[in-house]
Amino acid sequence: MLVRRLSDAAVTDFHRLSSHILMDAGELGSRHMTVTWVEVPSGASQELHSHEEAEQVYVVVRGTGMLSAAGDTEQLGQGDLALIPPASDHRIANEGPETLALVSVQSPAVSVEESYGRQTAAVAGYDEDDDRY
What we know:
Elements: E1 10-14, E2 17-23, E3 34-40, E4 44-46, E5 55-62, E6 65-69, E7 72-76, E8 81-84, E9 90-93, E10 100-107, H1 112-117, E11 121-123
Antiparallel strand pairs: 1-2, 2-3, 3-10, 4-11, 5-8, 5-10, 6-7, 6-9
């Protein structure tokens, strides 16, 4: 058995969103999954994006959020699971008062660098020239 603790996971920040990389593609002996812990602060959201080959699951650990996928929108809360089919445009947004924390699993594995290299966080009022973020 291999274990990676959240406190030991590498963290990648995109503007105001934080992804704790629990298991990147090919790590810990896994061949088919990528697992991240994502924290979305109040007022933040992802850009609309898709993973062409991978299906993705979000499991909400804390807070609430709005998931838009394939033209449909659904509010998610603690304990909810959402499945995103491959090649489906999707985004998660936090309009609630507390940080939204969720676990994201992608299969087949998609490296975090590849995944986030294609998309960044869109934050209400975000200005690329403003270093506060």
